[in-house]
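Hi,

I'm pasting everything inline rather than attaching a file, because the server keeps stripping attachments. The sequence lines come first, and each chain or strand is labelled.
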Amino acid sequence: MTGSPPPGLLPIETRDAFDGLAGARVLVVDDNRINRHLLLALLERGGITLIEQAEDGHDALVRIERFKPDLVLLDLMMPQMDGFEMCRRLRADPRWKSLPVLVQSSLNRAEDRARAFAAGATDYVTKPINAVELLARVRIHLRKRTMLRDLQQYHSCTEAELELARAMQARMLPGPDRLAELEAATGIAIHTHFAPSSELGGDFWGIDRLPDGRVAVYLVDFSGHGVGAALNTFRLDAICRQIGSTELSPAEFLAAVNRRLCGLLPCGQFATMLTGVIDPAAGLFHYASAGSTAPMMWHPGDEAPRLGDGSGLPLGLLASASYDSRLMPMPPGARLFLYSDAAIEIPIGGEDSHEVLDEYGLATLFARRLQEPDDAALLSGLLADLAATGPIDDDLTALLLTRRE
Amino acid sequence: MDYGIEVRDQEAVVRLRGRLTFNDHAKLRTLIGEMGQNKLKRQVLDLSSLEFVDSAGIGMLLIAREEMDRAAKQFVLRGAAGQVKRVLTVAQIAKIVPMED
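And the predicted assembly:
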């Protein structure tokens, strides 16, 4: 460091460069040439160099298009088009909604000020101009504009990044082509719903064709939602690919994922996961769960789905955790329903009640839809039931897997 | 969620009321700080008046456990009922935090 002088001691021009006003563009609108030159000299003394002049409202509107000012210094009483009218027209264009318009006028009655503000003025000073005050106000408005622009830029940048991340996350999930191929090869039809509660979510699922006609499926829900939870889904995707799903039983697979996640997740973060293998030849669904929701299995002819067991220590809490192997019969025509906990945390019973739908409530809704032969219609009907039950304020994922007869 | 702390002879009992969700993050942080400050070795979270907990809420209970561990205090969850009990049971939280009825 060479020890730069404190800002107060810098020449005015340099100080403004620090304020980010050096490149500011100001349009001076006044029908009086002497007034314009006075304002011009004043602005230049304040370190503003990009200045354009207009003689009346019409002229100003034309020049604004080309000059794209950061601030307009506007006189009110002008021939052709006065300042009030110009201001109104300017504000009618959404592009100039937040452009600061500093009125400088010899009109000094309260009604004149009120009229100017009603027309869309940002600020008002009366002639004769006080140089120090005018410059101070110009600086304030330009600085505010710079800050607003930075904020808008940051906002749109963040939005674009989130959108990109959302698309990346969506691409991690199996697409319709893969699901169609899987159905053709194994007779397991899959219908899905994936809806993060904000731009990004902590839910994630996957499906894999195993040798000998079996199908592996998993559903993951990271604690919390938003960016942090979404980043964890990318981690988990990598871990699942690394482990591979061919040789391990679902319980062994969960234990392996858990061991790897334990080293990665900070305290307070964890994931629930259900992983299972559909074995059509044996007519069975083998599964294991780390605190996930209870899988629901419906057999043709049954009135209601059977509830599996989702209990198990969530992933990422205890490296030595082991998981139980569980089993449900899955005959031809059976439907398996997997879902994230958003589906059983929907509040019911009105404002003051803390009751939620819970898995029995969900099973009841599911049971009412089971006569629907079309799986896609069943799933969308069930989702409509959930939406009608109450607000869903978490990521919602639902998978319906049907074994074709 | 809101809470009250009752300091007894052998233990400090913190009673949570209402819903424990992601929105209570800051409040639970404050609470954990208060639990660390009182001298008692045994810190009990009384969940009997808690009516709902989501996954973020469970995460915060686990953070509390870790902080109490670090402060060499015992940490106990007591009296979970209804949805809270169901969620804690499904997640087998009893494997890592002592739970009492």
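The domain at 7-153 of chain A is CATH 3.40.50.2300 (Rossmann fold).

If the labels don't parse on your end, tell me and I'll reformat.
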